[in-house]
Amino acid sequence: MDEIPRDQLTGALRRGAVKKHVAAIHVSGKLTLLQRKLSNVLLLNAYDTLVTQTRHRIDARTLCLMIGYNSNDMETLKQSLRGLAETVAEWDMLDEKGQQEWGVSSLLSYAKLKAGVCEYAYSPALAEKLHDPKVFALINLNIQRRFTSGHALALYENCYRFVRTGSTGWWPLDLFRRLMGLDGSSYYESFKHLNAKVIKPAVAEVNKTSNILIAPEVRRQGRVVTEIRFKVKENPQLAILDIDDGEGMRHGPVYARLREHGVSDRLARQWLSTHGETQVSAKLDYVEGRSNVRSKVGYLAAALDGGFGAEAEAEAAPSSARAQRLGRILEAVKARTPTQRDADRRLFQSQLSDPAARADFERHGWISPLNATRVAAFWEEMSPGLYEGLE
């Protein structure tokens, strides 16, 4: 992965937050975690010229770095851009004269990748709404990089703008499912499933990760839950994320080690902010101890982004039956969406009762030596027939 010096980030990209119109927030529920982060960074990049320019450009590698996608795989970026172009934005709001206005538009009118540059555009009507300074929510990019669940980030975006009023107000469950991108799913028609699989995990991650604290409340008709709202208040322990630019991290020993390996200033501070010095130091110890790694920076990026990417793991795996089996596992992991991969890791980790096994999985991900047998069994259950044809 090529390093991107901080001084290459210009204009709006130097900001730490993006003004995101509440109308846009309400319609982006069906986006994956990667697409949601991508949408915010594209808006941040274009914000200053939203209504004066019809086209916007950003270096593709800078784009990947800012959404925390440290990979040269442009195919995944293409798929995410395609998803934004295919997602419909709908707004229903009052204009300056108090008249109701309804509108619909694709989130991106077009996007293209050429010569390492991403070019994209918004429809004029949506660009006007996105740029409206009167009604917006500040989406902090330092915070958004910390999210590992698309549902949690969607819930954060929809709750953050109510931090001053203290409550989101009552949402009918049908509307809430739309905001979470779950409309059309019969499974989540059941509040029991919705609460266990979406609401509780998303609330827990928002409270752990972001600068707000939220608590759900429900209304019932008889025994049936019909509406939900969220109490919202500032998280005093993480409020510093709104203004913290990572300046203090430059004085630590782990930052110095990253820089010695050629990691850019911005990326080093992003990793330390997202993962913490302890975890980054542990990954550095592991990478520095391997002699067969061609790119220590690339391998470290893969290690920090969820337990090693397929290329890095294949580079480290031995030529054996286990390597063949691991190859199948990595293919299955790669085929999953970012949100699904996060859920897979959480599910597997929840099954580990031994502290040493849990620590080894946190350190090495799916190539964890102590958990090789468990990993193989887990993925065989997840994907029956995954190992067919292997010795």
From TrEMBL:
Any idea where the Initiator Rep protein WH1 domain is? 18-159
Q: Where is the signal peptide?
A: none
UniProt xrefs under InterPro entries: Initiator_Rep_WH1, WH-like_DNA-bd_sf, WH_DNA-bd_sf
Cited Pfam families:
Rep3_C (PF21205), Rep3_N (PF01051)
Family, according to the entry, reads as follows: Belongs to the initiator RepB protein family.
Q: Report the protein name in the record.
A: Replication initiation protein
- Per the UniProt record, the source organism is Seohaeicola nanhaiensis
